[in-house]
Automatic annotation (TrEMBL):
GO terms for molecular function: hydrolase activity; metal ion binding. Coiled coil: none annotated. This is MBL fold metallo-hydrolase. It comes from Lichenibacterium minor. SMART domains: Lactamase_B. Gene3D superfamilies: Ribonuclease Z/Hydroxyacylglutathione hydrolase-like. Residues 51-261 form the Metallo-beta-lactamase domain. Belongs to the metallo-beta-lactamase superfamily.
Amino acid sequence: MEQHAGTLAHQIGRAVVTKVPELSLTFPAAKLLPGWETGGDDVGDASLTLNVHSWLVRVDGLTVLVDAGVGNGKKRAVAAFGGLDTPWLARLAAAGARPEDVTHVLLTHLHTDHVGWNTVPGQGGWVPTFPNAVTVVPRLGYEFFTSPTGRASPNHDMFVDSVVPVVEAGRVVFVGPHEAEPLPDFTFLPTPGHSLDHSSILLRSDGREALFAGDVLHHPDQVARPDLCSMFCERPDEARRSRLRMLDLAADRAVTWFSSHCADTSAGRISRTVDGFAWSFVLEP
C-alpha cells in the first residue's frame, strides 16, 4: 500500500475540480477483474493498482466534496482500511479547503472507502468532520444498513461510525433511486450494480460536463472491456448495464470522467472505437 501526496486541479466551466488523494492498493489482475486473463494477455504476475481519493469541487460559492474516502483510525474488517493514519486532511487543505469550508458532501454509495472522512474522533465518539456541510446520502443504502440484513453485514461498522453520526447531526439530505438534483448543477444518476444504492454524479457548468462515476468502473481496462466486473461488484449484470450507459454518455457528450479508483491522474475521457470504447488519461489539468 502506497500513500500519495500532491493535488491536481481541472477547470470544468466555472468549476475547479481537485483530487484529494488518500492511498493506493495493488491487486493481482485476475483477482481484481475476474475474467481479465481471457483478454489474450500473458497474465503471469500481472497486477493492477487502484487509488482511493475524493474530489473537491469549488463552483459558484459552493465547496463540494464527492465521496469521503476511508478515514483515519477506524476498525475495519478489511485490514488495508483499518487503523489508517494518512495526511488526508492536510491534502484537503492543500487543495484549498478546510473542513469548515465544505458546504456539501456527495456520497455515490455507502461503502467503506467512500464514507470514512465523514467523521473524526470527538467528544463522546465519532463526530462530523465537516460541521457546516449538508451530506447527500443514498436512501437505498441507508435503508439497507438499518435493516436486519444490513446490520449483519461485515461492513456495517462503517455505517455506524461514518454515516450514523452525520444523520444524527441533522444535516443530511436523502436521494432516492431515481435521477435527482440535490444542489444546482449536480445531478445524481442511478447506476446500480456495484451496489444497490450506487449513483454517478453529473456536473454541468458553462456548457461543460464532468462525471463523478464512482465505482461504475475500478480500472481503465474496463473501458475497452466493459464486460469485466470487479471482485467488489454485488450485481455484475446490473453493473455492466450501468457501466455501458455511462460510457455511452461520456463518449457522446465529451464528458470528463473523474474516477473513484483509477490511478495516475484518475481523470480521463472516453472515445468510441471500432470495437467499443477507449480510455485516455487527462494528463494535464
